Amino acid sequence: MMASSSKSSDSTNSGLKDNSSDPSDEDKPELCPGFRDVDAFVKHGFGAVLSATKASASLPQAGDEFDFYRSFPGFQEFCESQGDKLLHFMSQIMQVHGCRSHLRDRNKLTGLEERFDLVVDSNDVILERVGILLDEADGVNRTQQPVMPAGFQPPKIVVSSWNRKGSGSGSRSEMFRLLHAKNIARPQLKFKEKVDNSNTPFIPKIFIKPNAVKPLPSYFTNKQIRKERPEDLDVPAALADLIHQQRTQEHVEDMFAHPYQYELDHLEIPESLLSKPDVKMYKPMDESNFTFIDTLEDLVALNEKLCKLSEFAVDLEHHSYRSFLGLTSLMQISTREEDFIIDTLELRSELYILNEAFTDPAIVKVFHGADSDIEWLQRDFGLYVVRLFDTHQASRALNLARHSLDHLLTHFCNVGSDKRYQLADWRIRPLPDEMVQYARTDTHYLLYIYDCVRAQLLDFNHGQPGLLQSVWSKSKDISLKKYVKPIYTEESYLEVQRKQKRSFNTQQLTAFRLLFAWRDKLARQEDESTGYVLPTHMMIKISEELPKEPQGIIACCNPVPPLVRQQVNELHLLMQQAREMPLLKAEIAAQKNKGLTPIKKPEVTLFGPHDTSRVSESDLHPFSTDEMPVKQGMLFSDDEHNMDVDVQKTSGLMAEAKITLFEEPRSLKDEDSLPVAQMKARRIIESFENPFRMYLPTSDVHINKNAKFDPSSKIFEISKRWKLQSIEQQQKELEAKKKAKEETKQLAKKVADERNKAKQSYQESLQNVATVRQQAAGSAKGSAKKRERVPSEVGESTPKPSKKPMTSAEKPQKTEPPPEESFKPFDYSQSDLKVFAGNKSKDNTQFDPNRQAHDFKKKKFGRGQKSNLGAGGRSMSYMAGKSDRGFRHNWPKR
Ligand code: AMP
Ligand code: MN
Ligand code: ZN
Fold it and tell me: Which of 169, 215, 260, 658 is deepest in the core (most CB within 10 A)?
């Protein structure tokens, strides 16, 4: 607590060397006396801040320890004099920056709040100045704000430099319009295939494989297998799962492999890509052609064009707030001559045709920071990239100062880019001109940069191709990445909870678990991000407070998420359920003593969100919100402590609480009653972070490895049932296979043979799926239909597999020894085995969200046909407590 009370002073003190451990220190807050250069100064400053932070962290903790020390007058005096000193320093810093600085002579009633306001304001002014200077040094003129996602209402007053800043230029009105571009129709509604939010592993969407060396496994080309979904069987879920499992078992390996693994593994780098390039200057943007593509015809034409090139640049824009898994909203493609932007929301089901160019090893695809793009391409369109060049990897290999696209643009093209739109709501249509410009910039210069970095990589290495080779190879590794869908387990809430660095008692933990499950369920169901349903910090707050009334739940949220408001009664029941949990004895005692939830002191005590150097993202959450209520040490409370002494006298015990203003709100239910200063502090801290952080997926939550081996966990079941292999295993197996193969065949010849075969199979599959041109000729509707489930197909497919379930039903235990705890064996004696005969009614095969209420989640949200091996059926549909966002994107910095 003391630590946090001094945080605000730390941050302002950092520039000033009040910590006179270093002999080179000087008292005067002059520019940089005693320091050779900025680096030396910064280094010293960091050291000072660090030791100050450490020191304050080691002060007696609030609670018993602090109270005890406080009963010694010597301690009080010392605190007071140090507090004065700090106030003095702070005043000086503020004066230097031209801020109001009368920290010391405030009347005692309002003094604390006002001082805090002063500190907050001054920090703001200082940080603003720092921001401007950094931008100037960067050559960036950051006069505008990021664009808010639609539907997101920024808090009305955000005290923060970059939010306050606004130029008088015409951009103001654009901002206004974009900010208020809410009520965007959900693009998901137009998708021809429903999004698959089920808690089942992702299965590649690919169904036709251009440029194949190894043909696409039959699982993907065989419509029948692919389209069978367990929930389409008219039997209880458990049985359906079993049947389905048996039917698909032989395909499991294929289902989870990278469809172009073989091609990528055998990709060689031709001489031409390792030799010195001619650096071709880019065309000025206003002299190049621009095409917005939102029809199949245009897409086909683009594909044809791309197939004739030797390289093109690609980038994606993505939306993650109003969707569970995220939506690729735009694809930018630039050739040497032209820029294209594809409306990937509109052409979502058609984009796969680009695989023809994207997987052609003779065509280089240049991306910047492709890690996420590779995953998004797979997830949304079944697109893969063979022959990727990632300029981010090149920048790293060149050891450039920074590796963002922004930096490359400044460095090579002398072009500034406008970061405002990075977080824009890319679902907006029609796309405003400014956003088109921004999006174009992302790819327009990339081919030129590709030339430049290749030339430099060779120069750097005295003409030797090693460095360039390594970039190709790193890029290839990125293109081998597989999209992994977040899988939710009963344990995942613990991972998130642990990161909060809070100790919850049994009831609070139960509440957290229940909220987590509720949030996950709703997010999948409504196809919203978990951050939209209920941001983690609000979830924490509700769990901590365990509100007795629905109103109390609302009070924990600001702003109140729409789904929380809508389901507040449901949430109220969850809270009741949590409150019914018996508390441990120790917990009861702790509650009595403190009347507060014990809060573990974070190990990392550097002040906050803007110093993330040693703090993991998740560490910041508590700071960003509720932890701000900070208990006061002596620094701001010159008067209050007298009161404490009185209390001591009367009670004969330790002072009860020295805690001042800043603590009270902790126990208050209503945020409205927070002191102004504290509200402000909260907001400013929130604004230090990505303003959307709280709406973004919880980051870095992965499945606990041990969970896989814990038979009671869902993930165990999942991994067992679906033989989810770790990438390592897969690679090992693949390597083993490869070796075996390579031994038995004369490589070159075989490959040629296979290629012919693959071509043939590609041709064959083309006959099933109309060619690109045919599709273009037909309406977009026609092409979608082709991929939709046709009732009669299912009838054909059912008879064959009908035997399998019988055998497997007899001995499921033998084949899979570990007991499946939550898997309820189905009583086959009760079942109508006729279903195996495949006589299904037509209706059965059609998607109908209202059918089979017992399994409605999968029904409703399962993707139309392809994957959704719904696998676990009942056991894999989510249950209480399981859920988590299992992925984190390493956002490539622009
Ligand atoms: P870019 O490659 O920079 O155009 O980014 C592609 C997409 O990644 C954007 O449309 C955003 O959705 C997302 N993105 C990029 N940077 C960030 C960031 N710092 N935080 C959150 N999302 C980001
Ligand atoms: Mn990108
Ligand atoms: Zn981009």
Answer: 260
